[in-house]
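STRUCTURE:
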């Protein structure tokens, strides 16, 4: 077997895999003999079917199966040995009817691959913010803990100190029953969600009002406070939602005492309010710094994407889109698709190049560890901070039974490792900033 490359340019080539008959003849012959031993043909005892009869019936199929196998292996081995980072998949050239008895066979594949270039991270600079939690944020976080374990005291009417339990459903138009059966949203609204609170504060228990999809699209703050993202609003199947008050109550905040400390952090971990504030500050600082690190990395990646030139194998990609997508019938359609996907493809190549050049690899332990952290984060949202490790591991293992979850978590792990590399190698312009200022920076 031999594989040769004819370069079209620096990012595309024709790879030709050539097989001699001797490469596959012996394996085909062995399979034919095995067929003859086990074939059951009327008029012949098992194992006594003439080899000539078996050859006539099965040789072509066995030969082409072995040829395809060896061509595929040869192509893959060549790509691996030459360390080609393919863009898309090889596109086989059309071939006339193949003769498996020929002394030599050749199959051609069009391929596109990433250009050879380097990225010097040190030449990229961005602000690296040092964000510290203020007393306001620390106190707000502690108050949220107190609310989580607060006593609910029923009220006669909604006042400024009221928390309102609300159910939100989509209003199904007449004649559309049975279509798009959506589960209702259950949310809480208080004075902190001022727009939503003003909307419902005149309602009594079990009373409701309707909000149009158009109003949610115009009033992003209302949509957000009613727990709808911009994407969720766009995807609403009906023209209205119904907001119903289910109950309302005043929260008597849990006292700052040992009982609360133990509920939040485990028995004996925190013993005083000073320790609690120090713990909360450390957690907030860590969380804020993680966000600041991500902001720095995103700024660097944006600069790289803007400044680095990446030559794409566009001619090949057009062929590949036509070959691999049955809905793409013409080269003109493929060109339109490529034009819309070009920037994303460039970004993926740059990201892959950074990971490859910095020897970033993933293994199962990395993915499992990230899944465990996601489980802990989810539990923390419900005030559960000290579930035994074996329970966390069980939940994480169940999560990884879903292949889409594995793909998503693997991507997160890869980006986390790339983030560490960029934090280490890119140039930081260290800047102290308040959290409010940092949030304003993110809005930009």
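SEQUENCE:
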């Amino acid at each position: 077997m031999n594989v040769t490359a004819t370069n079209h340019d620096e990012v595309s080539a024709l790879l030709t895999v050539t097989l001699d008959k001797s490469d596959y003849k012996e394996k085909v012959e062995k399979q034919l003999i095995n067929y003859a031993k086990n074939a059951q043909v009327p008029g012949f005892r098992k194992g006594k079917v003439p080899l000539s009869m078996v050859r006539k019936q099965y040789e072509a199929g066995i030969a082409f199966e072995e040829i395809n196998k060896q061509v595929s292996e040869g192509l893959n081995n060549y790509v691996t040995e030459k360390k080609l980072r393919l863009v898309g998949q090889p596109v086989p050239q059309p071939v006339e009817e193949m003769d498996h008895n020929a002394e030599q066979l050749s199959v051609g594949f069009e391929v596109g691959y990433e250009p050879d270039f380097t990225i010097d991270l040190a030449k990229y600079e961005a602000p690296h913010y040092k964000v510290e939690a203020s007393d306001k944020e620390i106190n707000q976080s502690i108050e949220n803990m107190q609310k989580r374990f607060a006593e609910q005291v029923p009220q006669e009417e909604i006042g400024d100190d009221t928390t309102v339990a609300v159910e939100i459903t989509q209003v199904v138009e007449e004649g559309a029953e049975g279509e798009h059966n959506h589960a209702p949203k259950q949310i809480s609204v208080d004075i902190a969600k001022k727009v939503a609170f003003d909307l419902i504060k005149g309602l009594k228990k079990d009373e409701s009002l309707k909000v149009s999809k158009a109003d949610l699209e115009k009033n992003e703050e209302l949509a957000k406070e009613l727990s709808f993202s911009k994407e969720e609003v766009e995807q609403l199947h009906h023209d209205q939602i119904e907001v119903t008050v289910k109950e309302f109550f005043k929260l008597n905040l849990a006292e700052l005492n040992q009982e609360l400390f133990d509920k939040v952090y485990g028995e004996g971990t925190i013993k005083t309010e000073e320790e609690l504030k120090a713990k909360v500050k450390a957690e907030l600082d860590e969380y804020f710094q993680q966000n600041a690190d991500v902001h720095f990395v995103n700024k660097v990646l944006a600069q790289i994407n803007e400044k680095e030139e990446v030559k794409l194998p566009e001619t090949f990609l057009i062929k590949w889109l036509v070959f691999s997508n049955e809905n793409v019938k013409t080269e003109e359609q493929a060109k339109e698709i490529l034009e819309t996907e070009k920037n994303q493809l460039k970004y993926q190549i740059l990201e892959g190049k950074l990971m490859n050049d910095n020897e970033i690899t993933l293994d199962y332990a990395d993915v499992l560890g990230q899944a465990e952290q996601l489980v802990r984060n989810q539990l923390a949202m419900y005030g559960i901070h000290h579930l035994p490790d074996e329970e966390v591991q069980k939940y994480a293992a169940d999560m990884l039974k879903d292949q889409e979850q594995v793909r998503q978590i693997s991507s997160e792990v890869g980006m986390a490792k790339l983030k560490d590399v960029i934090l280490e190698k890119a140039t930081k312009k260290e800047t102290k900033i308040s959290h409010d200022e940092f949030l304003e920076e993110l809005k930009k």
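REMARK: The domain at 121-128+270-443 is CATH 1.10.3120 (Trigger factor, domain 2).
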